[in-house]
Amino acid sequence: MSEAAIVLKDIKKVYKKSDKGAPETEALKGISLTIPQGEFFALLGPNGAGKSTLISILSGLVHKTSGEAYINGISIDKDHDRAKTYIGVVPQEINLNIFEKVIDIVIDQAGYYGIPRKQAIERAEVVLKDLGLWEKRNDKSQALSGGMKRRLLIARALMHEPKILLLDEPTAGVDVELRRGMWKFLRELNEKGTTIILTTHYLEEAEQLARHVAIISKGSIVADESMKTLLSRNKDKKLEDIFLEMTSEQP
């Protein structure tokens, strides 16, 4: 039996205030989750619930206060460099070099993971074609539309062929037609075996794509079950209504 893609055990994160005497902020209050290999997993929550903190801990941008986290069976504390090779991160913010060409952005990304240039060039062609960006490969990223920039973030994250893809609001600001195209691509990627963890404010997106859902509110998990089970338990309710009930009832 293969290791789970992600295992979180009692993850806590406390942000200390810079002002003397100010109270600390407990962003995560003991999060435990297990995400199997090959899952399409939605992590949902209102703004400030803690989901971005959790994603940042997994991607190495934020240090947890306590608890254990494993990526593909590897502790992020004991071997973080190896653990992060299994993950591709698509951030919420568009953080592309605006003066760099599309092709160079993805090839340079491969270089960070020690992928030889010849192999990176071949991989870049495949990924950019898959995401409809090949014709734009020699354009600077600043010349791309918002939707194309979002797709470029995904292409960059896939260059080292990660087993796990973390998507933080991947379709924010993308029009409906492009969003549906991205859904199709992500479904196909998942069907090929890539574990996908999605955060989104578009609850229809989560309902359409994810097989499993966890809802986080005020730093705690308030739901963790299959999408099908969650919807069937709350008959005649849309995911949006269920989400609002679960996140507003928390004290």
What would you note in describing this structure?
This protein has 251 residues and is an alpha/beta fold. It has nine helices and ten strands. The protein has helices at residues 51-59, 80-84, 102-112, 117-130, 146-157, 176-191, 203-209, 227-233, 239-248, and strands spanning 6-15, 25-35, 40-44, 66-71, 74-75, 87-90, 164-168, 195-199, 212-217, 220-226. It has a six-stranded mixed β-sheet with strand order 6-7-8-3-9-10, sandwiched between helices. It has a four-stranded antiparallel β-sheet with strand order 2-1-4-5.
Topology:
Elements: E1 6-15, E2 25-35, E3 40-44, H1 51-59, E4 66-71, E5 74-75, H2 80-84, E6 87-90, H3 102-112, H4 117-130, H5 146-157, E7 164-168, H6 176-191, E8 195-199, H7 203-209, E9 212-217, E10 220-226, H8 227-233, H9 239-248
Parallel strand pairs: 3-8, 3-9, 6-7, 7-8
Antiparallel strand pairs: 1-2, 1-4, 4-5, 9-10
Helix pairs in contact: 3-4, 3-5
Sum up the structure in keywords.
alpha/beta; 251 residues; four-stranded antiparallel β-sheet; single chain; 36% helix; six-stranded mixed β-sheet; 10 strands
Radius of gyration: 19 Å
Order of helices and strands: EEEHEEHEHHHEHEHEEHH
- Give the number of helices: 9
Q: Biggest sheet, strands in spatial order?
A: 6-7-8-3-9-10
Q: What do the pLDDT scores average to?
A: 92
Tell me, briefly, the overall form.
Answer: globular
The fraction of residues in strands falls at 15-25%
What is the CA–CA distance across the termini? 40 Å
